Every structure is written in structure tokens, then in C-alpha cells.
Amino acid sequence: MSLVSRLAALVHPRGPVVGRVTRPFARFLELEAASGLMLLAATALAVAWANSPWSSSYGHLLHVTALPLPGVELDVHGAIDDGLMALFFFVVGLEIRREVVAGELRDRRTATLPVVAALGGMVVPAVIYALINSGHVGSRGWGIPMATDIAFAVGVVSLLGRRVPPALTIFLLTAAVVDDLGAIAVIAVFYTGSVQFLWLAAAGAGLLALWWIGRKGWWSPWVFAVVGALVWYATLRSGLHATLAGVALAMVVPRAGAEPVADRVEERWHPWTSYVVIPLFALANAGVALGGDAVSDALSSRVTWGVILGLVVGKVVGVAGVGALAIRTGIGRRPAGTTGLHLLGVGMVAGIGFTMSIFVTLLAFDSAQLIDEAKIGVFGASIVAAALGLTTLWVASQRATPRSADVGPSSTADST
Fold first, then answer.
1. What's the domain range around 263?
2. What's the pLDDT score for residue 20?
3. Least confident of 118-127, 256-265, 283-292, 373-382
């Protein structure tokens, strides 16, 4: 039985209300696990292309003009990073809002542990990176190791199937949502240039109009798309990163009613961001030339080691260490059916920082050399984190007693 099936059995719907809660969660897990595989394939293709005899075509394609707009012209690379990624952040915003309003983050006692662990998993890696790069040219990249890639992390955990307690997966997803929220805040506050307030006011006016329309119950996807595109353009011209428009737009999608519009929109667009946007982002940004002295130069770089140690060591100390401290002090409750080794394994898996780490890299640095050094660090750290996390979670599952490994109604279902 797959992890998703196990989760469904654990909370088998006895009525339509429970079913509406569990089915979206199961679909979310399926999407993220499959997205992780597509992300891995796109990354492999980008690296192979950038190191092939046709590597010049890779760079040329990325710089072809794709979106000529008044006052700004975006090439293929910019259209993906500033345009399509806004859609990704829109869906992330919807996910965060759902968790706060109707999900795991609504219950303070349930949310305390993953929230505290996620905060530790952001602060400790940033501090490690900052200490290594203090006073050096790469110091601005402290935000790179703060993020966890949900798709890759869920993909790795899903490889173990029923061996992972369902509560542990919920803990990972909740912590990753908080992690995304933190990354958005860091981008907005620390990686934004000078702001053009007239354009920012125009974006705010568009958001206010959409909020008012939603309040009146006049929802129209076409009106939202047109006004949303104008909000995105105004945000792009304002100096804020255009992807922040996606988060802001997610906040004004109506949630009132028996079937909130926001849930329908998220369900419709989540597959597009998982299967199209994120793989395209990886294809456009993961193409690092590894020939010559690139790897050896990276291994002597403070930026690379700041990223590696931040993700591999900092995430474990931040997520598992701070989480264990929260459990010991009574601030949070250990997820059902888990052990300290499970928490350690999740802390390791959280070191897979791929998508958001690369995104912050592009915001932090202008130097191509620093960008490549950071990307190599992200690649290396993500591979090590995935391997260590997978191994640790497997060992934890072997040590777990049948009673702790199979909690709830699913243990009966699995034994048949």
C-alpha cells in the first residue's frame, strides 16, 4: 500500500466532510511526489545540455526575447523566473492560506512543533552560511540554505511508502509550508531593490479591486486573470520581485461559501505548477557547466561550503534539534508513531533545498561565478541530504515496533 493509500486508510472518510479534508491532502502528496521526479529529470537534462557539445544553444535559447512589454523586455530566462514562477508563488500562497484557515496551521497545539522546527530550520542554516561568508563577497547569499524543496522532500519520503508514519509526513509538509512563508518574507524584505511607489500603488489598487469583487460574490476567472496580470506587471515595474504578486493575488481569492473558490483554483493550477512551471524553472536554471576547474573552484569557495553546511548540517540542527528541544520542553508534541530517529531523518530530508534555494541564489548574486558556485553547493547538499535522510528514515522504520509503525485503523487494513 502506498503512503497516500495508508494516509487515506488512517483517516478513512465516514462522511462527506471528512472526505473533503482527506482527498485534497492525498492529491497534494501524489502531485508533489510525481513533481519531484519531473524536477529531477529536468535538472539532469539541464546539466547534460550545459555540458554537451551543444551547450552554446542552451545559453542562446535562454536569452531569446520572449515577452516584450512596455518599459521592460523579458527573455526566456526572465519570463520563466519572473513570469511563470509568479504562478508557482500564487499556488504556494493558496496552500499557505489554506493551511492557516482550514489546515494543520489552524490548530495551535498541532502546529506548534512544525512551526518551531521550521523556524529553526531557517535560522540555523542562515547563521552557518553567514559565519562562513562574513566579510566576503558571497555574504549576501545567507538566504540560500534557508529553504526546503517540498516536491523533492516528499518524493524522497514517498520512496519508503508505508514505512513512514503518516503523522511524520504531515509534520514535514506543515514545516515546509512555514518554510515557504519564511522564504517569501525574506525575498520581500531582503532581496528587493529600490521601490517605485507609484507602480506599487497601482498593484495595490488592482489587489483592492479584486478583493472587493470577491466580497461582492462577483467571481470571474477571466476578470481575475486580466486584473491579476496587470497587478503582476505593476509589481514588476515597482522594483519588488514580480513573483511576490503571485502571493498577494492568492490572498484575495475568495474563500467564503460551501466550496471556496480558492480551493478550486488551487486544485486546478497546482498540477500546472508541479508538472510544467517547476520543471521549466529547473531546465532554465540548473544548467551549470561542470567541466574544467568548475567543481574544484567551487569546492574551494566559501559560498559553496556555506550552502552545503547550511543545508546538510544547519537543517538537521534547526529542524531536528530545535524540534527535539521543543518536545522535551513541552512546547510541542511528537508526531504519533514517530521516534527521535524519525525526526532526525526528516531534518536531513529538509536539507533538500533545490528550487527555492536556486531562486534565492539568482536574487542574491549578479556574478555568474558566485551563482554557479552556489548552484553546485545546492546540488551537492541536496544529494547528500536526500541520501542521509532516506537512509536514516529506513533505519528508523526497521527499529520501530509494529505498534509504533502502524498506528490507527490502517494497521488493520494493511494486515489483510
1. 3-9+24-192+241-411
2. 43
3. 256-265
Q: Identify the weakest region by mean pLDDT among 109-113, 270-274, 298-302, 335-339.
A: 109-113
User: In sequence order, what are the residues at sequence separation of 6 or more whose Cβ sits closer than 8 angstroms to the Cβ of residue 256?
Assistant: none
In a domain, 205, yes or no: no
Element housing 68 (H / E): strand 65-69
Q: In CATH, what number is assigned to the domain containing residue 168?
A: 1.20.1530.10
Residues 173 and 288: their CA atoms lie apart, in Å, by 29
208 grid coordinates: 483592492
Indicate the number of domains in the chain: 1
Residue at 276 is within a domain? yes
Burial class (CB in 10 A: 0-12, 13-18, 19+), 197: exposed
Helix (H, G, I), strand (E, B) or coil at 134: coil
Name, in order, each residue with C-beta under 8 angstroms of 323's C-beta and a sequence gap of 6 or more: 113, 116, 117, 120, 332, 343, 347
Q: Is residue 231 situated within a structural domain?
A: no
Residue 171 has a CB neighbour count (10 Å cut-off) of: 27
Binned at pLDDT 50, 70 and 90, residue 215 comes out as: confident
Q: Is 56 exposed, middle or buried (0-12, 13-18, 19+ CB in 10 A)?
A: exposed
pLDDT > 90 in the chain, percent: 55
Beta bridge partners of 73: 68
Question: Is there a domain that residue 206 lies in?
Answer: no
- For residue 260, what pLDDT band results from cuts at 50, 70 and 90? confident
Q: What is the secondary structure of 196-247 as a DSSP string?
A: -HHHHHHHHHHHHHHHHHHHTT---HHHHHHHHHHHHHHHHHHTS-THHHHH
Place of cell 556555506: 306
CA dihedral 211, 200, 235, 67 (to 10 degrees): 120
Give the Cα-Cα-Cα angle 308, 40, 386 (nearest 5 degrees). 40
**CB-CB neighbours of 291 under 10 Å:** 9
- 124, 320 contact by CB (below 8 A): no
Average pLDDT, the chain: 85
Using one digit for the tens of pLDDT, what is the confidence trace for 24-78?
Answer: 555 555 666 677 788 889 999 999 999 999 999 999 999 999 999 999 999 999 9
